[in-house]
Amino acid sequence: MAGRRVSFASMAADPVVDTPGVDSPRSGSPGSAVPGDTPARWIRTANCLPNPRNPRDDLGDLSDLASIKDRQLQSCLAVTPAAYLRLWPEDRQALGAGPDDVVVINGNRRRAAAQLYGREQLLVVVDDSVAESKATLLRAALDENMARKDFDPIEEANAVLLIVAQYPTAKEAAEAEGWSQSWISHRKNLLKLHPELQRQVRAKARGEEGVSINVARRLGSVKGIEEMSLAEQTAQLEQLLQADADAVAARRAAKLEAKAAAPQAAAPVVTPTPVPAPTPASTPASAPTSAPAPASASAPAPAPTPTPAADRSGPAPRSPQPTNPKPAPSADRFSAENSEPRPMPEQRAVAPVDEEPTPAAPPPGLGNVDWHNVEELADAICRTLSADEAYRLADALANRLLTTSS
Question: What is the distance between the alpha carbons of residues 227 and 216, in angstroms, rounded to a whole number?
């Protein structure tokens, strides 16, 4: 039921409630029931009393309901004063209910708008089964307010904790209301903060400057935060915000570093071609290679030593060539004699035909997590998301479960 607006008249099989343009009763007398076996009836706006236990302290701007003067698009849910006072007899004097009055549980903004804009009667579903217990009545009032985007988070936390207080333990409350214990704890953490910080949370929820709900919940989870003064809680808040800023900066730096390293990893690695050092074949091992011995006049001139092509600085005397000459290796020409084979860039090994290729290991993250293993999934989420993102995910999951289970 949480998370969406509910038409209680449709639950009571009333065919009129959800029809746009409901603007006049079927019967002229006040308090007359809509034809058919249904608890919906027309009641004077003056006889519709506001809920003293409404979780909203401030109904806010009612201008969005100005059209209720001419049309009532949704009915209100109410209980009789007797059913209400069975639960809270101490409210008898404050309620001041008469014999024709009802207590509006769901639809207090519509009731207030009807009173403000001059609508004389309201279509109301009177159902005392909502007042079966304090918890059921408080939950009915809470559900409609939770469907509103501008619902004050502090008011919501107070309402949730008030419902939880109707049960022996928080665990039993969570099971009965369809909430998780962590969802309840997040609301409880908001109420551990100093009233000034709670005011800042409310301001942020209205779009003003203040403290976000997720940061406030994390601050409320600090050990001993309830006993701290405003100055101490503010100091804890500053440390928390600084830690978040450092984490964001670290993630940004890591992304930039990975982005800069990506082109270098993609570029092919070229191995330079080794050039063998020239070694004269006809020079004796004991003779120096830098300066040959001068030839004597009586001795015949030795045969000229061939000089490698890469080391020649001038024309060399030609030696007799064989019939099938073999081209000498050149430094600017690829051959097996003067160069190593160059590897292909980013060459990948190809598996033999008769072998199955080995699958690559999946990258780290949520992709290789067993989604049925809650602990493993929780660890992976904590490694992947920041604390603020993890809190937002927990809230989204809790709201989704409440929506789908209702």
Answer: 16
Token code pair at residue 362: 């999946």
Mean pLDDT of 332-342: 47
120-140: pLDDT as tens digits: 999 999 999 999 999 999 998
Cβ–Cβ under 8 Å, residues 365 and 379: no
The tokens for 317 are 């005397």
Beta bridge partners of 359: none
Residue 329: closest CA among 263, 274, 384:
274
Q: Cβ distance 37 to 14 under 8 Å? A: no
Question: Hey, is 140 helix, strand or coil?
Answer: helix
Q: Do 211 and 237 contact (CB within 8 A), yes or no? A: yes
Do you know the residue count of the chain?
Answer: 406
Least Cα distance to 22 among 4, 37, 9, 36 occurs for 9
Q: Please state, for a pLDDT cut of 70, what percent of the chain lies above it.
A: 62
The closest alpha carbon to 124, from 106, 142, 148, 143, belongs to: 106
